[in-house]
Amino acid sequence: MKILYINGTYEGGSLRSTRELLAQLPREDAVSRLILAQQPGRIDGYLRRRATNLAVKLGGHEPQNIVERMNRTLGRRATYLGSDEWSSSVVENAAAAFSASWNPDVVVVSSVDRVAWRRIRRDTADAGVPCVLYLREEALLAHLGLTAPPDLVLANSRGLVDSCKRLGFDAVLVPSVIDLGRCEIESERTTALLVNSTIAYGLERVIELAELCPNIDFVLQESTQMTTTDVDLTKSSCRQLGNLEFRPFRQNPADVYRDARVMLAPYTDSLESNRPRSVLESQWNGIPVVGTSRAGLRDAVGPGGVLLAPDAGMSEWVATLTALFESSDVYNDLVTKAREHSQRDEVDPVTIGALFIAALKGVVAAGS
Fold first, then answer.
1. Residue 228's pLDDT is what?
2. Measuring CA to CA, which residue among 240, 231, 181, 4 is closest to residue 102?
3. Domains 2-174 and 180-344 share a fold
4. pLDDT digits (tens, 9 = 90+) for 295-340
5. Whole-prediction pTM value?
């Protein structure tokens, strides 16, 4: 089976999990090719958005819509990165060109924007190739209603599976593959860590916690590209609070956890169903999670942490965090549970790879 995988990111957990998933696939069952995004330049990104908006205003598809026809020529020639990977400034256009020459049996798509998804879905339908949408983010649920439904929906969390069901779609649970060997480290256990220091991931809550817990050191770890608002808030807060440190993106995931005692996950409702890989990485290192009770976190954290109600007050957050820094009995019990939870069969890479292949074989067989 020939699998063309399209990932619309150039960094972050979605791309890492995609690479680690494809590395698990048995070569006797599957040959894969990955097309990923290139980091957009400011001018290139602006021009592409303007051209897309103009094409939408004109209406219709190519060849009648001359602007859309021009848009579909951008990024068709992808750059070979080695190891069966290519990158493009416009992944959907590179995928169309690649499909025409390689003839994949199935196309899998994750972490793309609305425009890319519409185009990919139209291209695959025209070519008669099964198209699979692999949901890793809450925001991509809206893709299900944008155009013709995908032939198969995969989701990396039970929260996303449940959300799909409410929208009238059946989704197959395929957790993200995570190479835990790359993140393994013996932590010094001295700090409270926020991975992905953005407002959506709870930056404001962590800053408030740092103000109320001056005896605890907090780390704000960059994971994906931050907005100007996130950067400004982070820098100003770190200047004002001596126990708050910002750390830039780390290529080696083990470095992220080198001194973490707990991982913080006070996620906002925009991440209700997201299942972050950082939870499993933390728990593999025996680092408990303290977060908001969101569907994705309930799925991922299990007994290896403490989840507080979305409306919990700061006093409850402070009390929970203080207990984990001051009570060795409470903390050590959660350390043990975190390690045990990280070793469950559901997150075994070989098991996940088999689930993925079985789901793709099913959709290919149904379309043949």
1. 83
2. 4
3. yes
4. 999 989 999 999 999 999 999 999 999 999 999 999 999 999 999 9
5. 0.86
SS (H, E, C) 127-182: HCCCEEEEECCHHHHHHHHCCCCCCEEEECCHHHHHHHHHCCCCEEECCCCCCHHH
For residue 95, what are the CA distances in angstroms to 46, 146, 206?
A: 22, 19, 40
Question: Cis peptide leading into 26, omega within 30 of 0?
Answer: no
Residue partners of 2: CB distance under 8 A and separation at least 6: 30, 31, 32, 33, 102, 103, 104, 105, 106
Angle at 265 between CA 15 and CA 347, to 5 degrees: 50
Boundaries of every domain in the chain? 2-174, 180-344
- Indicate if the pLDDT at residue 158 is higher than 80: yes
- In CATH terms, the superfamily for domain 180-344 is Glycogen Phosphorylase B; (3.40.50.2000)
Distance between CA atoms of residues 347 and 352, nearest Å: 7
The CATH fold assigned to 2-174 is Rossmann fold (3.40.50)
Q: φ and ψ at 309, to 5 degrees?
A: -60, 145
